[in-house]
Write a structure and sequence with these properties.
Helix content of chain A: 10-25%
Strand content of chain B: 25-35%
Number of strands of chain A: 7
Number of strands of chain B: 7
Order of helices and strands of chain B: EEEEHEEHEHH
Largest sheet of chain B: 7 strands, antiparallel
Order of helices and strands of chain A: HEEEEHEEHE
Radius of gyration of chain B: 18 Å
Strand order of the largest sheet of chain A: 2-1-5-6-7-4-3
Number of helices of chain A: 3
Oligomer: heterodimer
Radius of gyration of chain A: 15 Å
Shape of chain A: globular
Helix content of chain B: 25-40%
Distance between the termini of chain A: 17 Å
Shape of chain B: globular
Structural class of chain A: alpha+beta
Mean pLDDT of chain B: 81
Low-confidence stretches of chain B: 150-157
Distance between the termini of chain B: 42 Å
Strand order of the largest sheet of chain B: 2-1-5-6-7-4-3
Mean pLDDT of chain A: 93
Chain lengths: 157, 175
């Protein structure tokens, strides 16, 4: 094992740019469950991520993750269709800190701006609960291309 | 269970949905889904366009979960599903194929989305996601009472109203 970071500079910039983020876990019966996340932070080692979910969405996910740590997170930019999926293992959770709120709101604002550019006005999303959040840290294991096209589903290079 | 018939707007394909599946060895997968179709009061059809990880997971484990959105309110719904069969011909397939072509055309992805099959799923449960209410109820109520010309432009309801006006207008001048 070379210890090479999985997440490149370009990918880090993309992930933290304000995207549609969807998280999946599963229960004892292999029933998958999915929720939305509002922001992500790529750790310095480029092998761990922390995603931020509204506390109620986090509750749904943690019900599974504390028993079955396998997690999948998909990132999508609606205007360009650029998308990827990162799979890994749940590490830890904590309440999001007040100091993290500004960055979470920045990413949410960028995502809403992207939605606005394709015809979804801000008023249509003003009811979405984006705070308080839980922070869920996970270690990355696999990265996959999900941008529509011939390479979709292939490992991300 | 929320009746599927009450989610008609969600099945228009105006907003993408999200499909969550799980392999037999317990690895979840989440992928965007262009279209979910209403079949009957207990079934929906999901578009099968690529033989991808979602499809491989369903072959091993028929359980799935779909999150879809009402384009008129941005209310999100969670549907728990169980795979039944794939149709590669017939009215459900044909209807879905035409809808996929239209979605691909206005999404700028023409030629990438080719329908291989319509996957039929039994709907086990439907729930409104309480923390994913796009437009607050008060705003929705105000919007529906306000004059049509002041409402938000991009809604399925607005499109239907425009279509009704065009259909009922006796002359072009009266529009």
């Amino acid at each position: 094992m070379t210890g090479q970071p999985l997440i490149s500079n370009d990918l880090k910039s993309f992930l933290e740019s304000g995207l549609s983020i969807n998280v999946a876990s599963r229960d004892d019966e292999l029933q998958a469950n999915g929720v939305v996340a509002w922001a992500v932070r790529v750790h310095e080692d480029r092998n761990r991520l922390t995603i931020y979910l509204h506390k109620e969405a986090g509750r749904d996910m943690l019900r599974n993750l504390t028993t079955h740590p396998e997690i999948a997170v998909a990132f999508d930019l609606p205007t360009s269709h650029r998308a990827c999926q990162i799979k890994g293992l749940f590490v830890s959770t904590r309440p999001a800190r007040a100091s993290e709120r500004a960055e979470i709101e920045r990413q949410v604002d960028r995502f809403f701006a992207d939605m606005e550019s394709i015809g979804i006005p801000r008023a249509m999303v003003s009811g979405l609960k984006t705070w308080p959040c839980v922070a869920i840290e996970f270690s990355t294991a696999q990265l996959f291309e999900q941008t529509p096209g011939p390479g979709a589903g292939e490992p991300l290079r | 269970m929320i009746p599927l018939e009450s989610l008609t707007s969600c099945f228009q394909g105006l907003l993408p949905s999200w499909l969550c599946t799980c392999s037999r060895d317990g690895i979840p997968n989440v992928a965007i889904l262009s279209h979910v179709d209403y079949v009957d009061s207990k079934h929906v059809a999901l578009s099968f366009q690529f033989f991808n990880k979602s499809k491989r997971n369903i072959a091993e484990n028929p359980k799935a979960m779909v999150r879809l959105y009402d384009p008129d309110s941005m209310q999100a719904y969670a549907l728990r599903l169980r795979f039944v069969r794939t149709e590669t011909e017939g009215p459900i397939f044909d209807s879905m194929r035409l809808r996929i072509e239209a979605i691909a055309s206005y999404s700028g992805l023409k030629g990438i989305f080719k329908l291989l099959g319509a996957d039929i799923y039994e709907v086990l449960s439907v729930a409104a996601i309480e923390y994913e209410v796009g437009m607050p109820a008060a705003s929705r109520a105000v919007r529906l009472k306000s004059p049509p010309e002041t409402r938000l432009p991009f809604t399925l309801k607005a499109l239907q109203e425009i279509s009704d006006r065009i259909q009922q207008a006796p002359t072009l001048d009266s529009l």
